[in-house]
Amino acid sequence: MNSSDLKHKRSFIKKVGIISIITMVSRILGLVRDLVRARLLGTSFYSDAFTLAFSLPNLFRRLTAEGVMINAFIPVFCRVQKEDGDRAALGFSASFFWMATIILTLFSALFILASPWLVKYVFAPGFENEALDLTVFLTQFMFVYIVFISLAAVGQGVLNSFSTFWVSAATPVLLNISIISFALFLFKRFENPTVGFAIGVVAGGAAQMAFHFPFLKKKGFKLFKDINLSGPAIKETFKLVVPTMFGVGIYQINIIVSNLIATMTGEGAISSLNYSNRLLEMFLGVFVISIVTVILPRFSVLILERNYDQVKEDLNFSMRLTAFISLPIMTCTILLAKDIVSLLYERGAFDANSVAMTAGALKYHMIGLLFISWNRILSTGYQAARFLKRMVQISFFVMIVNIVCAVMLSQVMQHKGIAFANSISQIVQTILLIYFIKEIGISGLINTGWIVRFIKILVCCSVMGGCVFYFDKYLKTGGAVSLFVTVPADVSAGVISYAAAAYILKCSELKEMMMLVLKRKKKIR
Hints:
This protein has helices spanning 3-41, 45-70, 73-84, 86-123, 129-142, 145-161, 166-186, 195-218, 232-239, 241-262, 269-304, 308-335, 337-345, 352-366, 369-384, 388-413, 415-436, 448-477, 483-504, 508-518.
């Protein structure tokens, strides 16, 4: 590893590490938020209604905030910044902010008006009576969240392009604090226990948007200056909107489809899938989202410079590092799913049946952890290159695979079949993204050396899995032992055995991380 590569990788790890720490705090608060919801709502129809209603603005958050505001906006912003300078780029971002405000407000109003029909016939055909009425009410109340969070994403795109990543990484903390606070404070003040949660969502979204402005001002962003709603950069961005929305939003669309099918499999299905998916997202958000946040602006610049070799190297490194971290998490979680869910959620309205349903879904969701991680990283390359037609084609095919598998598997596996279908569709998407990435000038991404390294990681996971399985069995042999003891002990045993196996097998990922952290300039073979 030469000094230039070492410097770049150390910078990469440092940025990812900072964002990961901030995101870890956010995800812990998100977990606390789910614990509050589990205690107050359990897997009742109240929980199902809130889960489905909140998933709707979240669907469009993924499409608009992550699809348009970041993945369509950042490549154009980086181009304008490179060609015309910071002032022109900031003027473009202010214009885009106002155009987005107009479009999002109109869309939100139309969706709210159409909510009674959409919820009944499209998103929750299995809901009836009180559950249906409550879902409609919550959807109409919370949907304005999409406006706030999407506009916050404009600020995120600008700051990320200036390599200021921590601000946007911190804003979910505000959302989680808002939901937790309002839910607890208003729980006994309303007959409907979901009102506090809904108010917290809207207030949290407004706080997320407002938090960006002081930092944007320091960069020279002026909300009311150099506005041009019909400029060429605006037109260029909106040409990327539809394909980017569909390509990036396929994962969230799959969740909505899953919820729709889950409404027909019985009470508690949606909630258990949501609790399970939240744990999955916690693992993703701590590390994978941090990587994507850092590499998208970088890829946009590298592709403008036609430096495809460096893009390939960064993708290869990111995928290996992600596998090295994601696979042991996946292995350990599948083995300890019931204990983890019971430790985190089993209290109040969240009973033993809720534990069983959520743990069952979690095992099948976790099968797809690595592939979801890779998909988000690979998709970033497609987005930075604006190679969106193929991405849309892949996404559409994957959506069909998910729907077909979810319908078929739910007949025999109930809600667990829906979780398994999500994982199967993610595996298919990974295969297709890797196969077609050569069309944007990146070939040889998966080579013999990469496969050998991946096999080493799998061997390490096998060693860790055996250690966790037998250690857990040993701890529980002597009688009843608190989960507060067994789960941390099992995880610790897994981490130690995994690290030891990686050291013995000389996994390059472990060596790279150690060298980068210790700032040692030793060549890795």
